[in-house]
Amino acid sequence: MLDAPTISSDDYPECGADGCASSGGVDVPGTFTFTTSDTDVVKFTYSLNNTLEVTKTVPPGTTSTTVTLAPDQRGLNQLAVTAWDAAGDASTTATYYFSVAPNAPATGGWSFDEGSGSTAADSAGSHPATLVGGASWSSHARLGKALDLDGTQGYASAAGAGPDTSRSFTVSAWARPTGLTHDAVAVSEAGADGSAFALSYSAASHAWVFSRDTSDSASSAVVRSVSTATPVPGVWTHLTGVYNAQSGTVQLYVNGVAQGAPVPFATPWQAGGDLQIGRGRSGAAYGGYFPGQIDEIQTWDRALSPKETADLEAEVDPETGHSRPALAADWELNEASGSAATDSSGYGHTAALSSGAAFATDNDGGKGGVLSLDGTSGHASASGPLVDGQGDFTIAAWVRLDASALSDTSVEHTMRIAGQSGGNQDSWGLWYTQPAGMSEGMWAFGRTDADTPGATTVTAPTGIASAQLVDPGDDWTLVTGVYDGAHHQLLLYVDGVRQTAPVTFDSPWQATGDFTVGVGRTPDGSSGDATAGLVDAVRVWTGVTDGGDIDLMYLNEMPIPL
């Protein structure tokens, strides 16, 4: 039998008799060396924390090899390594224990939750931001309150708050532009003549940009990491810029997703000016004033890993461990009459009712005021978009389908409950589908991969064979769809219960048409698949809603029939 290999690492020292000395951090790569006394080893297999086993093939005669690993958990980690010879004989498995330190926290944080006054506190440090000019507070916020800027002269600045831009750093912010007519800077750090960095919107490129001036001069060149995701006015988008001094690159992330490859940047310099929120400095003058709202700015004196950046968008509550979505639209549909449904979210997305749609009272089902749809032309629509469909969002609706409209089992039935329309397709939506020959069907949350007729549709569940079949009946059902854009996952919940494992979808596109209730785009691009029945409490959130919170929503809102 082969001897067990030995394992060593300068980055993550092995735990000893005196305990473990923590080092590195989650997702911070380190090198590990595997050494064997046998000269006939042809490969090593290794597994970190009992996850997928990896094979490292080596030339015959090799007695030592090095791999790079990024630990995936804080505290104690376990690396198991086995050596193999050409005959398929294995050594005893060697186990290496090491401890991973908590990653360094943010060095600056501005949540803008004050709502009054002229100063925004720095929750992670001691550098408050002062509101200037056309800067005020807004309840249109990603969390709590937000900074509201007029796009012409309003900004906020925090003296001495910027990261050391000559070293690795990260900056992130939520941005909701109300217009895209000119260059607009969400956050930057000023030098004497230019900006050491800027997270901004470029009107010429119609793109989000993370940029760095190559020097602090009025004529400096600018290096940019440019978004492939489309900026959209009136919705919340998460922006992160990372400068990695070790690799010498800048990288923009939009909604937790890397935008293209890292861009080389070779001339880092330390800015001496203030952190600027809502404007930037270029050519020895300030400009690029941001129109709209900015929220939840954070800075770090290190390069965040891709996984950390993806997790940022969730806005996890440190006390509960749950993500914190923000309401973007809410139609309770309790109006007694009229042809318009009020959006109670505060964003003013009033929905207009068409013929065939009317407010009604559901006494026997226990829902009270609801929207009644006739299954032919009845629907409601509001100007969209409501959320950035390239990022995290959640949609929920209570539905009571008309079972008689689904009784003909000789044909297929599809009823579109709600969705976001583009020019030819719905980018995303909720619906019920019942194949021909079946008296039961499935609820679905789906997305198309392009705004073209015949685009590919990906759904959760992936099809009727993997779905939990439901009898449409006459009961109320809470249908909830979640898109985790940072991790490319679709999830569907019915009455608070997740229906399948997450379904991968990595081709999101941003639709800018109407948000509709009761109809949707059919595969050929026409409007149809009308819903027959009752709909209530249609809501959309920016962000992922946790499964436990969806279940609680169902339990709290479950109707009690009279």
Which features does this protein show?
562 residues, mainly beta, 9-stranded antiparallel sheet, globular
Could you please describe the fold and organization of this structure?
The protein has 562 residues and is mainly beta. Strands 8, 11, 12, 14, 19, 20, 21, 22 and 26 form a nine-stranded antiparallel sheet that branches. The termini are far apart. The mean pLDDT is 95.
Strand content: 35-45%
Largest sheet: 9 strands, antiparallel
| CA-based gyration radius | 27 Å
| SS-derived structural category | mainly beta
DSSP summary: helix tally: 2
Specify the helix fraction band: under 10%
Number of beta strands: 45
What's the structural blueprint in terms of helices and strands?
Blueprint: E1 6-8, E2 30-35, E3 41-48, E4 54-57, E5 64-69, E6 75-85, E7 94-100, E8 108-110, E9 119-120, E10 129-132, E11 135-138, E12 146-150, E13 155-158, E14 169-177, E15 184-190, E16 195-202, E17 207-213, E18 222-226, E19 237-244, E20 249-254, E21 257-258, E22 263-264, E23 275-277, E24 280-282, E25 285-287, E26 291-300, H1 306-312, E27 326-331, E28 340-341, E29 351-353, E30 357-362, E31 368-374, E32 380-382, E33 393-401, E34 413-421, E35 426-434, E36 442-448, E37 457-460, E38 477-484, E39 489-494, E40 497-498, E41 503-504, E42 515-517, E43 520-521, E44 527-528, E45 532-542, H2 547-557
Antiparallel strand pairs: 1-2, 2-5, 3-4, 3-6, 6-7, 8-26, 9-10, 10-13, 11-12, 12-26, 13-23, 14-19, 14-26, 15-16, 15-23, 16-17, 17-18, 19-20, 20-21, 20-22, 24-25, 27-45, 28-29, 29-32, 30-31, 31-45, 32-42, 33-38, 33-45, 34-35, 34-42, 35-36, 36-37, 38-39, 39-40, 39-41, 43-44
